[in-house]
Amino acid sequence: MGHTCVFGLGWGDEGKGKVVDLLCPAFDYVVRFNGGANAGHTVCVGEERFALHLLPAGILHESATAVIGPGVVVDPIKLIEELDGLIERGIDPGSRLKISERAHLVLSYHKIEDQLSEQAASSGKKIGTTARGIGPCYADKMRRSSAVRFVDLVHDASLLDRIEQIVEQKRKMFIALYGEDGELDVEAVVADVVRAKNRLVSNICDTTSLLHRAVEDGQSILFEGANGVLLDIDHGTYPFVTSSSTGPHGIGVGAGVSPHVVTTRIGAAKAYSTRVGAGPFMSELNDATGDRIRIAGHEFGTTTGRPRRCGWFDAVACRYAAKLAGLTDIALLHLDTLSGFEEVGVCTGYRIGDRTIHTMPADISSCEQVEPIIEFLPGWSEDLQEIRAFDDLPQNARDYVARVESLVGSPVSLIGVGPKRSQTIVRGDLKNVVGDISMSAPA
Ligand code: IMP
C-alpha cells in the first residue's frame, strides 16, 4: 500500500482515530494536515481510552514519527497538556513529534474571539463551534499581519513585543464589536508563548522537507484528516463548517506534499449519520429512533461532550464526499450500534418540493427544505461485537453493507463492530496492511 489518507466522510466524529490507529504500525510517518484542537480522536487500547485532539493518533505507536503539518492550527498549551497526559500514562513521544515551523499558533485571544462572536450571533446564525479558536486563528493566518507561527518562536527576537501589540489590537476590536474585551490578559498570553517556546522548541522543524525526503526514500506516510469532508471550508455545508480543507485535497495545502502521491484514500463513515453543532442535517431523526442511536452509539462529543445529533446513513451526502475525495475504500464504523433495530434506514435522495435531487445543495435554505427519501432494509438482532469475519455477520447486516457500497460507489474494506482495536473486520487488500489486530500494541 502506498501513501494513504484516512479522513471523515461526514461532519466529523466518524471513528477515524480507530482506523488510523490500526493502520499506523505499517507506516513510518503519521501526519495531521488540517484543523486543530477541534478534532477529537478516541482510541481504545485494551481497557484504556485515549482522547487525542492535536496529536496524531499515530503517536501511540513508537514506530511512527508523528507530524503536525503547516496547515494545522495548534493551541500550544493544549498540546503540552496532551503530551503530559500521555507521559503520565507511560508514553513519551519525545523527538518522535515534529511540529511544522509553518504551523500557526492558536492563542487565548482566538478562543475568546470564538466565544464572543458565537455569543453575539443571533440565533440561527450561531455556528455552534467547538470554541477552540479555530476560525479566528485561520482568519488571522489569512490576514497575515496578526498571525503567529511556530517559526517565530525560534527566529523572531521581537516576538513578545509583537504579541503585546496584537493583544492590544484584539482588545480594541473586541470592545468595538462586542462591547467587552473578554478578560483578555496580555501577561497570560505572553506567558503562554514563553511556555510554548521553552517546551516545544526542540520539536519544531521543517516538516515539509522531512516529508519530501520520506517520499523520495520510499518511506510510507499516513495522512490523518481531521473533522470531515462535509465540514470542509469550500465544499461543506457552508457556513456551518470548519475553517480548513478536511479531505485528501487538503494534503497539498496542509502538509506540503502533492496529493497525487497518496494512492489510498480511506473515508471513515458511521453506519448511521451524526453531527454536532448547528447546520443542515438532511437525514436527522428528531425522534425516539434518533435518541436510541445516540444512546446505543454513546454519541457525545470527545472534544466538547455535547450530545450529537443522530440520523440514518445519508448516502447522498456520503457519495458527494466520496467524489470530492477520490475515495478508494470505505471504513464503516459502528455497525454494531444498529443491532436490534427492526429495520435500518438509508437516505437515497433528497426531495425539495416536487423535485428529487441526488446532489448537495449549496445554499442552506435548500438543505433545510430537504425531505429525505429513506429506503428501509431489514435489520438484525444479533450482537456483532465478537464477530471478526465478514461472512460471519448476519445476512441482513451483510446486505446493508452491500447497499452502502453500491450507493456510495466504493468497497467497504473495514467494518467496526465495537470500540476496541480488536473489534474490527478487515477485508480485501487492507488485510495485508492491518495484519493481526489482536497483536498490535501501543507504544
Ligand atoms: P470549529 O471547527 O470549532 O470552528 O467548529 C465549526 C463546526 O464544525 C461546528 O459545528 C463544530 O461542531 C464542527 N466541528 C469541528 N470539528 C469537528 C470534529 O472533529 N467533529 C465534529 N464536529 C466538528
List the helices and strands and how they pair.
Blueprint: E1 3-8, H1 16-23, E2 29-32, E3 41-45, E4 48-52, E5 65-68, E6 73-74, H2 76-88, E7 97-100, E8 104-105, H3 108-120, H4 134-143, H5 150-155, H6 159-178, H7 186-200, E9 204-205, H8 207-216, E10 221-224, H9 250-255, E11 262-270, E12 272-275, H10 288-296, E13 309-314, H11 315-325, E14 329-333, E15 343-352, E16 355-357, H12 364-369, E17 371-378, H13 395-408, E18 412-416, E19 424-426, H14 430-434
Parallel strand pairs: 1-10, 1-11, 2-5, 2-10, 5-7, 6-8, 7-9, 11-14, 13-15, 14-18
Antiparallel strand pairs: 3-4, 12-13, 15-16, 15-17, 18-19
The site of inosinic acid has 21 residues, from α4.
Q: Your description of this structure?
A:
- By secondary structure, the protein is of the alpha/beta class.
- The protein folds into 2 domains: 3-96 and 206-434, Adenylosuccinate Synthetase, Chain A, domain 3 (Alpha-Beta Complex), CATH 3.90.170; 104-203, Adenylosuccinate Synthetase, subunit A, domain 2, CATH 1.10.300.10.
- The protein contains 14 helices and 19 strands.
- Helix 3 (108-120) packs across helix 4, helix 3 packs parallel to helix 6 and helix 6 (159-178) packs across helix 7 (186-200).
- The longest helix has 20 residues, at 159-178.
- It is globular and about 65 Å long.
- Mean pLDDT is 94; it is low at 439-443.
- Inosinic acid binds next to helix 4.
